[in-house]
Design brief:
Quinone Oxidoreductase, Chain A, domain 1, 7-stranded mixed beta sheet, 2 domains, ADH_Zn_CS (chains A, B), homodimer, zinc (chains A, B), 6-stranded parallel beta sheet
């Protein structure tokens, strides 16, 4: 089969690889219908995260079950499924608490599972899924989704689940005012998640006209282009002299975290999902003085997918709009370039 | 009148001071029935917090209204009242959000109010209370509480409200497992608050037999004397191999914050009320990886007093047990010594 490998910074190749096979009774093999490139895939691409050897890459996919191991009874051949961005067992205490990203038997795509077997990356034609029954979510009544539905289902694998996690972590709810820091795919999904959870005032912080327009389409009521103190002043003015009840931090840099903290009212909530880089921090004394709640981190997509899926299937949310580009799998190198150069918000890959 | 002043590290004096008088129409003058010494009063006493001049001290008191300004209609002469550890207006956006410690017109005891008038410290015979109607909470049906009730009412001024804030910030609720780091008056109140909120398993971390015994009396189901990794291992063992759902940090040091963080399960909640000192921090990456929620800071005692007061008056909670010593106001210097030397958990002062 054909699959995407990263050899080093800027070096993405689509290659012939062995077709996956069932290794354990709990496995399934899924033929990938759509995958995509994530902002976090750009870290090794940009050399920010070192690679010791050429690696399979990609962690977001939807597809069709092709085969299952002997222990898999809840999934059948032909089921259309969504894969969260990590797999999980569903049984250990963290999974039982809904924190599947802390699963004691976790495995990542493009890595090895706890039994030492290779797990394919998502940006390829097929993937072996360990702990398949606990990991995969079947899309009921759907076997061949159209392009728009496929795109929305694919966002549940990561970006929409992550935007939702930011909103939940920031205690977004009816009547709360919301600021979203970050206009990438996750930030845009955060806007949509905030609207879905009932926020009536949603301020998207964006300096890019196309992304700001998409934010408005997804539910933003206001756009603030300014950053730093000026940005905070704009938020305060828009909200009638006060700061936001809930702020979603969807970038992860020192600057974005400061922007988020300083946009949150005393006693408000900050949900952060941007992977902390470049000295991002939360000064404890600031939290103490402001009574701001902080929560976030990696989203347990597996936990969130069922409720979000209902709304996608009902047509009440359309997170697939964050894909502004679709390419064939063979074009993966160009997909990475387009995202690296910010010519694309998010690229969907069709194997 | 007689009132307590701090002149410098270790130098507490009870002196003659002017009796307070109404300065603004919203003021009340309260004759203090009981005050007490707070752990935070020990900072200037120990020289940790510098003093530029001799200052009035004390921020926790209950007492009887002696006179009111022309605008005060909800309080009358003779009312027995509880004063939160700061005053607040009740009208500004933070107050409306229940975050009275972020009041835009806040004043502290022993400081000056926004009009520039001196506000007496609580460890004295009488105090002028600015913004009296919004600040003070009347104890209904009580004019001369007995010693036990007086002690419990006095804890609502700060320590019980603060312990409750830690528990609320840590999302304590029915069925949640709880660890309390810190066995001072606030930690002990945190134990009681956790029990009141329905926690069934409450682990108090304490190395002092008397405090541990009191923690058990207040609702702790287990006591862990070990600290560091050993303490975490003990918590994990007591909870059947997992960490706590909710952890209350009631100290504020680097060590106690680490103890608290490392005792919290993935996706659990840490409520912190210990004033951060000595390099206490929350590493953002740790939060990201663990999905731990963090909230806390200064408690908005004014917001919490009404609900806690109901339970004190009903006799279902007895937070006054944290006072293990009662002294006359004139003994304030000895009260500070006893707390500084940890001979007393908390000293109640009777003017």
């Amino acid at each position: 089969m054909r699959a995407t490998m990263i050899y080093g910074p800027g070096d993405i190749r689509v290659e012939d690889r062995d077709y996956p096979a069932i290794k354990m009774p709990g496995d399934a093999v899924v033929k990938v219908a759509a995958a995509c490139v994530c902002g976090s895939d750009l870290w090794p691409y940009r050399g920010v995260k070192a690679l010791s050897e050429p690696s399979a890459i990609g962690h977001e996919f939807v597809g069709v079950v092709e085969s299952v191991g002997a222990d898999v009874t809840g999934l059948g051949v032909g089921d259309f499924v969504i894969a969260p961005f990590v797999d999980s067992c569903g049984q250990c205490p963290p999974c039982q608490n809904g924190v599947t990203v802390a699963c004691e038997h976790i495995a990542g795509w493009g890595d090895t599972d706890e039994h030492g077997f290779f797990v394919e990356g998502a940006q390829g034609q097929a993937v072996r899924v360990p702990q398949a029954e606990a990991t995969l979510v079947k899309v009921p009544g759907v076997t061949e989704p159209d392009d728009a539905l496929t795109a929305s289902l694919l966002t549940l694998s990561d970006v929409m689940a992550t935007g939702h996690h930011a909103a939940v972590s920031a205690n977004v709810g009816p009547g709360r005012s919301v600021v979203v820091v970050g206009d990438g795919a996750v930030g845009l999904c955060g806007v949509l998640a905030a609207k879905r959870l009932g926020a009536t005032r949603i301020i998207a912080m964006s300096r890019h006209e196309d992304r700001a327009a998409l934010a408005v389409q997804l539910g933003a009521t206001d756009v603030v282009a300014e950053r730093g103190d000026l940005g905070v002043a704009q938020v305060r003015e828009l909200l009638g002299g006060v700061l936001a009840d809930s702020v979603l931090e969807c970038v992860g840099t020192k600057e974005s975290m400061e922007q988020a903290l300083h946009s949150t009212r005393p006693g408000g909530s900050l949900g952060f999902v941007g992977v902390p880089t470049g000295g991002a921090e939360i000064p404890l004394r600031y939290l103490f003085d402001s009574n701001i709640h902080v929560a976030g981190g990696m989203a347990s997509a597996r936990t969130y997918i069922p409720e979000l899926l209902k709304d996608v299937l009902a047509g009440t949310i359309n997170p697939g709009l964050v894909f502004d580009s679709v390419m064939a799998l063979e074009q993966a190198p160009e997909a990475y370039r387009a995202m690296d150069e910010r010519r694309a918000i998010k690229v969907l890959l069709r194997p």
